């Protein structure tokens, strides 16, 4: 029997959401999912995971007081 390959996220936004699942107290919202430039906004206990978020490529938005990752 052939083993099925692990399911790969459909796109970068989905991959970011999968990566964020392991961070406790984090909330994530994808804005513009149907556009060519979706953005994942990260809230909740983000400050506690600052280093991990920055490794994922998250940037801080002073305007929204939240981290975000451009998933384009």
**Uncertain runs:** none
Largest sheet: 4 strands, antiparallel
How many individual β-strands? 4
**Cα-atom radius of gyration:** 13 Å
Q: Biggest sheet: strands side by side, in what order?
A: 1-2-4-3
Distance between the termini: 37 Å
The quaternary structure here is single chain
Shape: globular
Q: Secondary-structure element sequence? A: HEEHEE
What is the count of DSSP helices, taking H or I runs of 4+ residues? 2
> Which secondary-structure class do the elements indicate?
alpha+beta
Mean pLDDT across residues:
87
Describe the structure.
The protein is an alpha+beta fold and 72 residues long. Helices cover 21% and strands 28% of the residues. It has 2 helices and 4 strands; from the N terminus they run αββαββ. The protein has helices at residues 12-20, 50-55; strands spanning 26-31, 39-44, 59-61, 66-70. The chain has a 4-stranded antiparallel beta sheet, with helices on one face. Strand 3 and strand 4 form a beta hairpin. The termini are far apart. The model has no long low-confidence stretch (mean pLDDT 87).
Brief write-up:
The relative contact order is 0.22.
Explain the layout of strands and helices.
Layout: H1 12-20, E1 26-31, E2 39-44, H2 50-55, E3 59-61, E4 66-70
Notable traits:
72 residues, 21% helix, alpha+beta, single chain, 28% strand
